[in-house]
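Lab meeting, item 3. Inverse folding demo.
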């Protein structure tokens, strides 16, 4: 940009000198016209020096990176990450790329936007002291949003690399960009854990007679402190449905307790661990009667998606 500024300034100086000399050009023009040309030149300088467009600014992309790594990431998402000036991502994201022989420039990675909002430590705080977690999260949201706005004012392209599908139980839209001007960002969809888990089961999520496919979580169904009633399960149990429970592994005992009131012991439940992670992916098929014990016997206690219904058989 510096060469544009210098070139434009030199051009303006030349125009002013030429017009103010006691020559033929000045005599043929009125003073008003000369002044108009000078003002136009100054405007052109501002236009060029600020990126070639009045009010030109950068753009934020919320990029769905898929559940595991770049092999399940859309080509458009990868192109945006490559061209971005600034990357916002978890520390695990560059590691995922390296496993597939790809590289994320560490100089572009500015910060982990979700630090203190999600993760094991944040989850512990959320359960033990919800108000403290909420204050901590709000401070983080404000800091990240201020950082993004500053980068956009500088004309930078910012990519927020969210795992899975950023529109389904993902922290970017649910927390970080709450209240953020939608005109300033674009969402690039990604493959969600639900899609990868369905592929692992090798079956349709909409088998015959299923009337409802529900993507939810224990917190959404029953509240942060399980304070909500379970009448919704009573209503849902009247219909054949496929129910997908995010973030349910750590509370499987409570989930089973609620479901037992309305569903039979042989009600099919599958847990897909590490959905989309290739060799690490594992499918556990069980039922309402045995699932609590079966989950206890598995090493992984966090990264698993529960799918309930006919498709889990």
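The presenter then showed the designed sequence:
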């Amino acid at each position: 940009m510096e060469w544009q500024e210098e070139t434009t300034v030199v051009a303006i100086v030349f125009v002013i000198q030429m017009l103010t000399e006691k020559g033929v050009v000045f005599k043929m023009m009125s003073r008003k016209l000369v002044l108009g040309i000078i003002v136009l030149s100054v405007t052109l300088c501002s236009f060029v020096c600020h990126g070639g467009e009045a009010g030109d600014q950068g753009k934020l992309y919320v990029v769905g990176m898929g559940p595991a790594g770049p092999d399940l990431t859309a080509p458009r998402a990868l192109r945006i990450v490559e061209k971005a000036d600034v990357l916002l991502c978890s520390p695990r994201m560059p590691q995922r790329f390296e496993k597939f022989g790809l590289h994320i420039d560490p100089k572009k990675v500015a910060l982990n936007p979700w630090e203190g909002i999600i993760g094991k430590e944040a989850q512990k705080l959320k359960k033990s002291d919800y108000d403290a977690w909420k204050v901590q999260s709000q401070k983080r949201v404000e800091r990240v949003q201020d950082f993004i706005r500053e980068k956009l004012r500088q004309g930078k392209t910012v990519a927020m690399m969210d795992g899975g599908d950023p529109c389904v139980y993902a922290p970017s839209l649910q927390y970080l960009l709450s209240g953020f001007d939608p005109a300033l960002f674009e969402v690039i969809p990604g493959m969600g854990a639900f899609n990868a888990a369905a592929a692992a089961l090798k079956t349709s999520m909409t088998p015959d007679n299923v009337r409802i496919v529900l993507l939810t979580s224990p917190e959404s169904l029953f509240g942060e402190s399980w304070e909500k009633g379970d009448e919704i399960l009573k209503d849902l149990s009247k219909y054949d449905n496929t129910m997908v429970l995010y973030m349910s592994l750590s509370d499987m005992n409570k989930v089973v307790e609620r479901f037992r009131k309305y569903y039979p012991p042989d009600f099919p439940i599958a847990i897909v661990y590490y959905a989309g992670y290739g060799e690490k992916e594992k499918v556990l098929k069980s039922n309402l009667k045995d699932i609590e014990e079966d989950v206890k016997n598995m090493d992984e206690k966090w990264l698993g998606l529960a799918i309930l219904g006919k498709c889990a058989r």
